[in-house]
Amino acid sequence: MSTATTSGRWPSLSTTPTNLSGVNTDHVTWGVPAGGGKSGYVFTGGQVDVKVDGSEFVLGTFTHENFPVQALPVPQFDVDLAVQVVFEDGTTVDFTFTFHHNETPNNTANPEDLVDLPSFVSPQSVTVDGEEYAVVISGFKQGGRVVRQFVSAENAANSADVVAIFAKVGKPDVVITQVQFKGQVKRTQADEFVEVVNRGTVAGDISGWKLGADDAGQDFTFPAGTVLQPGQRIRVYTNEVHPEWGGFSYGINKPIWNDKGDAAKLHDTSGTVVSTHGYGSAKTQP
Q1: What are phi and psi of 244, to 5 degrees?
Q2: What's the Cα-to-Cα distance from 56 to each of 30, 49, 52, 135, 227, rounded to whole Å?
Q3: In this predicted structure, what is the pLDDT of residue 107?
Q4: How many other CB atoms are found less than 10 A from the CB of residue 65?
Q5: Confidence class of residue 115 from pLDDT cuts 50, 70 and 90?
Q6: DSSP of the chain, one letter per residue?
Q7: Is residue 131 within 8 Å of 54, Cβ to Cβ?
Q8: Is the pLDDT of residue 286 over 60?
Q9: pTM of the prediction?
Q10: Angle, CA of 188, 190 and 196, to the nearest 5°
Q11: Torsion angle in degrees (nearest 10) through CA of 134, 54, 4, 1
Q12: How many CB atoms lie within 10 A of CB 212?
C-alpha cells in the first residue's frame, strides 16, 4: 500500500445549460438562480491510501449545490469528471467518469435532484507491480451507507464521499464484505444480512451460487439471472425483503448467523469456496 494525491475537474457536459460556468475546474455551475444560488458540482480530492487488495478507499468528496434555478431547456444531462491520481513514484493518471444529472422541477412533492453514474468503471488503467488496474466506483457514501444513486435535497449543498476500488482489469471479483449477525428484531433477528460486492471491472454472473454458514438449512441459492455489475453490492437478509439491496431473503423465521461469531462462505456452481468472511469472534477480512 502507498499513498497518492487526487484532484478533480469537470471538463465537459453533454449539453450547455443556461448560465454555465467553471468548465474544466473543480467547481462547475449552471442555471439562473431562483433563490439562493446556482446549481453545480464540486469535486474535492486529497491524500488517499492506494490499496490494490480489493478494499475500498475514498477517491474524493462530491458536493452537489442544489439550489432552485429557473427551468432548464434540457433538465437531464451528463457531466464528465476527470480525477487525476498522482502516485508516490510520480506516475500520474487521469481516471474519467460520467455523472448523469436530473434537475427535477421545484414545484413537485419531491423536488430532490437525482445523480446517477451510468458507468462505474474508468476506461483508463494503471499498472501497479506488473498488474493492470482500473478504478471502480462503489457509490456515494453518506451516513456510513454506500448507495448507487445520489439523492440531493433541495436548497442545500449536499456532499458524499466517492468510494472506489482499484480493481484488476478484465475480470469480476465477487466477495462477502459484511455480515450483520446481530439483528435488532426480537427473537427472529429478521434484519440480519450478508453483504456481497463485485470488486471487479466486469459484471459477474452468480446465478446458482450458494451463500451459507455450513449448517443444514442455512444455504441461500442465488436465482437465475443474478448478475452483479462492477462495484455493485447486494444483501441477503434473514427474513426481510429490501428491493434497494436486490430483494434477496432466506425467508427463514429464525436467526441464521451465530451471535458470538463464525464464518459466512460463498460457493460457486462447482461448489468451490469463492469467498470466506469471518465475523464476530472469528472476524477476518474478505
Answers
A1: -65, -15
A2: 32, 10, 9, 10, 21
A3: 62
A4: 20
A5: very high
A6: -EEEEEEEEEEEESS--TT-B-TTSSEEEES-BSSS--EEEEEE--EEEE--SS--EEEEEEEEEE--BPPPSSSEEEEEEEEEEEETTS-EEEEEEEEEEE---TTSS---EEEEEEE-EEEEEEEETTEEEEEEEEEEEETTEEESEEEE-TTEEEEEEEEEEEEETT---EEEEEEE-S-SSTTT-TT-EEEEEE-SSS-EE-TT-EEE-SSTT-EEEPPTT-EEPTT-EEEEESS---GGGT-EE---SS--S-SSEEEEEEE-TTS-EEEEEEEETT----
A7: no
A8: no
A9: 0.83
A10: 140
A11: -130
A12: 19
Residues with Cβ < 8 Å from 113, sequence gap 6 or more? 39, 64, 66, 101, 102, 103, 104, 151, 152, 154
Residue 29: what residue type? T
Amino acid at 159: S
Q: Which three cell numbers stand for residue 270?
A: 462447482
Cβ pair 11, 97 in contact under 8 A:
no
- All CATH 2.60.40.1260 domain ranges of the chain, comma separated, are 174-280
Classify domain 174-280 by CATH architecture.
Sandwich (2.60)
For the chain, what is the radius of gyration of the CA atoms? 21
pLDDT tens-digit map of 226-276: 999 998 999 999 999 999 899 999 999 999 999 989 999 999 999 999 999
